[in-house]
Amino acid sequence: MQTRTLPGSRGTFARVLAALRDVRLRPEVRLTEVPAPTRIAPYAAALTADVVDPSDAETDLATGRFVVLHDPAVPDAWGGPWRIVTFARVELEPELASDPMLGAVGWSWLVDALADHRLGWAAEAGTVTRVVSEGFAGLADREASVEMELRASWTPTTGEVAEHLQAWADLLCTVAGIPPLPDGVVPLPGQRR
């Protein structure tokens, strides 16, 4: 297998990490830097995000994880030196459990978020899973709950990695039911924990 190593990878990754730390997101999105996976790529960064209810900052509407991987050897499966791996989870109304379009709609929210930011991507892969929980016996009085989980990865081909974080944060807001910001409105910086 032939690999191509990019010069200055440590410095490049440090600049991307600084840009991720400086990204401006909607105030409903709370980012936290967490330990990144160590065995997948030579360089990695990870963030978790919670989308809080604009009317009640104590209520989380959606949650997720955004991981940036950088491998100067340009793995064949990635098709580039960067890879983004994401996860998003939201609780939905119970009647959506049987909606046959839920998976396709969930995936389209991701594609739309990337396209709305005019970003390019390749080698995308992912799943949309619905989890239905029903209570029985001592938990029979609990209402059924439905969660949707979207797991996706892609290789950025245009834009800065921080712009992909912004698109993913917009996806989280969409799954949380928060409408997009109108054109020309700039979000205030989100809170970091």
What does this structure look like?
- By secondary structure, this protein is α+β, with helices and mostly antiparallel strands.
- The chain has helices at 9-22, 102-116, 161-175, and strands spanning 29-34, 43-53, 56-70, 82-92, 121-133, 145-156.
- The chain has one domain (9-175).
- The radius of gyration is 18 Å and the shape is globular.
- Mean pLDDT is 87; it is low at 1-6 and 189-193.
Mean pLDDT: 87
Number of domains: 1
Range of strand content: 35-45%
Going by helix content, strand content and strand pairing, the class is alpha+beta
- Large-scale geometry: globular
Please count the beta strands (DSSP E, at least 2 residues each). Answer: 6
Query: How large is the radius of gyration?
Result: 18 Å
Count of alpha and pi helical runs: 3
The sequence of SSEs as H and E is HEEEEHEEH
Q: What fraction, in percent, of the residue positions are helical?
A: 10-25%
Question: Which segments are poorly predicted (pLDDT under 50) over 5 or more consecutive residues?
Answer: 1-6, 189-193
Strand order of the largest sheet: 1-2-3-4-6-5
Largest sheet: 6 strands, antiparallel
Please outline the helices and strands:
Elements: H1 9-22, E1 29-34, E2 43-53, E3 56-70, E4 82-92, H2 102-116, E5 121-133, E6 145-156, H3 161-175
Antiparallel strand pairs: 1-2, 2-3, 3-4, 4-6, 5-6
Helix pairs in contact: 2-3
